[in-house]
Amino acid sequence: MFDYLIVGTGLYGAVFAAEAKKKGKSCLAVERRRHIGGNIYTEESHGINIHKYGPHIFHTDSDEAWDYVNQYVRFNRYTNTPVARYGDELFNLPFNMNTFHSLWGVKTPGEAKKIIEAQTREARDRIGDTPANLEEQALILAGKDIYEKLIKGYTEKQWGRRATELPSFIIKRLPFRFSFDNNYFNDRYQGIPIGGYTPLIEKLFEGTEVRLDTDFFENKEELLKEAERVVFTGQIDAYFDFCYGPLEYRSLRFETEVLDTDNFQGSAIVNYTEYEIPYTRIIEHKHFEEFGSYERKSEAGKTVITHEYPAAWKKGDEPYYPVNNDTNNALYEKYKKLAGESGVFFGGRLGKYKYYDMDDVIMDALADTRAIL
Ligand code: FAD
Ligand code: UDP
Fold it and tell me: Is the pLDDT of residue 296 over 90?
């Protein structure tokens, strides 16, 4: 008999297992995919660690989260500097002096501010100070030019909805600054684990029995007999058989190919911000590892790229992003109430229905294990 059955071997399940082991508790982890790691799983191809479920950059302001992962793996000094492509134009992200120079030819923060202030003032005069949706939020924050070239098309593709029907909070995640700094994140720490994310997950699961290719729902009766308590990191609505109706998610489709060239796009991530281009971004995985060192670590003459296509979600698809608008958050609260009465612990991005980054998941798992174990 195990103390805990952990459903899902993503980051949350892995941190839970590692913490439980420290406390002398035994866990059995089950995973419906053929591998551990959830969405941070990486797999080697041509000497390159491929981010199989989308590009993952570890970034955090939390000493605790950073120290935690660094106990297990070493990080490289990757700094996320994605490029946005609109037609034949390239722009640096996040919105910074390089972007403003490409957009308007301005050379100083003063000149850039003048243009942005004129455009945002125009928006505020029309909309007021309380944006009702993402379009209004973006116009108030960034003005018309940036919104139309760099935000509108990308966002509408990503979320499958008009920007006027999306909640404004999504756009608060885009940093905006008046220096020549292409570092996408504001956080104190960032990097990619040397060797990819899979070794991190493997280390966290050391000493824990893991069964792959095992869906909880298909084996529920037998699995429940094997453990005292359940930690569930899959979809909370699925656990309760969608009794209040499904929560909404966004899905993705990845098309990965090996190219006979050393360097396809010169950046790990290029965002395609036009609505007409069906993918949101192209990932060139080797740059996550070779960034800054300019030392080839992968096979000569080869690179691996992934086109990332946004997709609608329906039952059975991979639920990559929760859609945290008011309606879904209210529905989640109903499931959360059931969860509280069920005796099962729910964790992670799908168990808590939150747009969590990796460091959020770690902090959450550490808080939960402190409370539970
Ligand atoms: P998951 O990784 O989803 O793990 C849940 C696991 O449970 C999965 O392996 C699933 O197969 C399994 N499971 C579900 N149901 C069952 C079942 N019934 N039976 C058995 N197993 C089951 N975060 C960052 O910090 N930086 C980034 O750059 C970043 N980029 C991202 C890009 C994309 C495209 C996406 C989708 C996410 C990104 N994230 C990023 C977020 C990051 O992926 C998550 O924070 C983290 O992976 C969540 O871990 P988790 O354990 O909660 O969930
Ligand atoms: N976004 C955008 N243009 C870009 C990149 C991002 O408009 O070139 C918007 C878009 O609405 C997206 C949000 O910013 O959903 C957050 O994107 P980010 O890449 O920061 O986060 P992720 O999609 O990885 O969660």
Answer: no
